[in-house]
Amino acid sequence: MASKNRPAGGAAENKLSVGTKWAVAGVLTGSSLAALVGAGSSALAVYFARRVITPAARHEDQEVLAVIKDGPGLQVILAATPDTTIDGVFSLFFEGGRGHARIGRIVSYSPAEQTVLREVEEVYSGNLSEARRGWWSGAVYPDPAAIGLAAEDVDIDVEGGKAPAWLVRADPAASAAIWAIMVHGRGATRLEGLRAVRTARELGLDSLLISYRNDGLAPSALDGRYGLGSTEWRDLEAAIDYALAHGAEEVVLFGWSMGGAISLQAADLSRHRHLIRALVLDAPVINWVNVMAHHAEMNRIPYNVGRYGQLMLSHPLGRRLTGLSAPVDLKAMDWEARAVELRTPTLLIHSVDDDYVPFEPSASLADKNPDMVTFEPFHGARHTKEWNVDPEKWERLVGSWLQRQLAPRRNPGDASGPAQA
Question: Which CATH superfamily is domain 144-287+334-406 in?
Fold first, then answer.
């Protein structure tokens, strides 16, 4: 069962005095947009809001200090960061993403020198010896072939064109009755879902690893902005259409981070929602207001400025500043508040030290709807890296929980007793 929620922190206590008036700088008007802080704070709020919804290139913020020979293999010396000092298996992307290496266990760590020595398990592309910077990722594998699985390249019809996807069959000779659809997170790609494919395959599920608007593979949205799940779920709907047209009778949705928000939207709004057998969500966004408040606090943005940024995203007049073609209904995506409305069996996996998407809303959702929601906490995994730090635990939890959800349903007219899990 879910752990008790910890306090969210002091951001909510940092309110301005009651007599303080908020001022919108010129563009936003009307009684519902009661004025906010001055032009400087307004500009900060605009910047904050646009950062949340604007796709951005990955920054090579990880320093590569040296690559050394270790017998037939390689080791890499990296600048120590909160990510690189977590034991497990990860990826280092370099050369602007053209290079990709799978990084394994920690060999040694020097707090004094702030360096860490790790094994290099495999270099998939690029010349790691020449790399000086890169970015760290939990997306370990470059394609299904890297985990020994064949895949079909398929295209899914979405708004604006076709979205590439990988289809990995559980049984190459037949289509499974239930498909797993893997939905990656904000700023990630379909590589993220490869960590779950073997677990799905062992349960007899075909896996469809999708792309969606603004992820660099699928067609971009007309406004070039993330909808935080409020628009992207339509691309997931198209993927469900594809699965049903190619042999699936039901689907299980796997979602990471914003992919969790997208999956929850589909379970709520899709015309096929009755065919969504279960949700498996890893570090999901359950409540965007909570996430935005957390990031405002981390970046020392005043509470009221952060709230103004949320208001700009959700109010129709805010479109002129954010560039959104339509406002984002943050309340409709608050599954803490809507907990009893979630009627799809859901597994939530979330590390309690996640500093990007706080775990408390996941725990809260499970507390409020224990009949539908199971919460499994991890420790020391940070954001969406639960599999990376303990793949055996992740696969065991997901496999056993899904096996129970996928057990044959008892016919209401069958008096022989309950089905066995």
Answer: Alpha/Beta hydrolase fold, catalytic domain (3.40.50.1820)
